[in-house]
Amino acid sequence: MPSVFVQGRPVESYPPLAPEARRGSVRRITEVGEEVLHKPCRDVTEFGPDLAALIDDMFLTMYVAEGAGLAANQVGVGLRLFVYDCADDDGVRHVGHVVNPVLDALSPAGRRLLDEGEGCLSVPGALMDVARPDRAVVRGLDKDGRPLVVEGTGYFARCLEHETDHCDGRVYLDRLSGRERMDALRQAADRRDEVFARRAANVVALKG
């Protein structure tokens, strides 16, 4: 099996950081409670250099924050778009972006729920168990408007589901009980300074 898939297609080799990141600038990551994270995003209708530049910025911002995925509203842009660089449970790396993502509705017979740890760059430092299907199929477009299908299993499926949730105006806290949500927010409050210090160090390391 190939060790890397880019835009859903196998490749023989790929650099440690997606090339887009080398062209990007670091943007501020929005945090839970900010309006842009809690309302559905608009479909992308214009494809061109501005969209490509946003994707470049999102890749670099994701790497600085040590994330596996990042949606556009996490950098304050209310468009249906996310980027990802995420390994599945077999260690296969998946890299790419999806514009206007929509998750296929999978038959309950063809999936199982996994209750595993999940974090979010917009809830810095918190980690909670969230039940999600172990398989996901996302349909959308690439930055040039070409149709795209990305399939994932295990942790990569969780990433696809999590990022599509963002595009729908949902954060993973919305899938928790009230008590669990408070626990996550306490974790974030306790660890926020540490997380932001690490991100600041990564900016220097990646752009230096």
3D architecture notes:
With 208 residues, this protein is an alpha+beta fold. It has a single domain (4-207), classed as Peptide Deformylase. Helix content is 31%, strand content 25%. It has helices at 19-23, 49-64, 154-167, 178-207, and strands at residues 4-6, 9-11, 69-71, 81-87, 93-103, 113-118, 128-133, 135-141, 147-153. The strands form 2 sheets. Strands 1, 2, 3, 4, 5, 8 and 9 form a 7-stranded mixed sheet that branches. A two-stranded antiparallel ribbon has the order 6-7. Strand 4 and strand 5 (93-103) form a beta hairpin.
What layout of secondary structure does this protein have?
Elements: E1 4-6, E2 9-11, H1 19-23, H2 49-64, E3 69-71, E4 81-87, E5 93-103, E6 113-118, E7 128-133, E8 135-141, E9 147-153, H3 154-167, H4 178-207
Parallel strand pairs: 1-5
Antiparallel strand pairs: 1-2, 3-4, 4-5, 5-8, 6-7, 8-9
Rg, rounded, reads: 16 Å
Mean pLDDT: 94
The largest sheet is: 7 strands, mixed
- Tell me the name of the CATH homologous superfamily: Peptide deformylase
- Counting structural domains, the number is 1
pLDDT < 50 stretches: none
| Sheet/helix structural class | alpha+beta
Helix-strand pattern, N to C? Answer: EEHHEEEEEEEHH
The tally of helices reads 4
Instruction: Classify the fold: give the CATH topology.
Output: Peptide Deformylase
CATH architecture: Alpha-Beta Complex
Tell me what portion of residues adopts beta-strand conformation: 25-35%
Approximate shape: globular
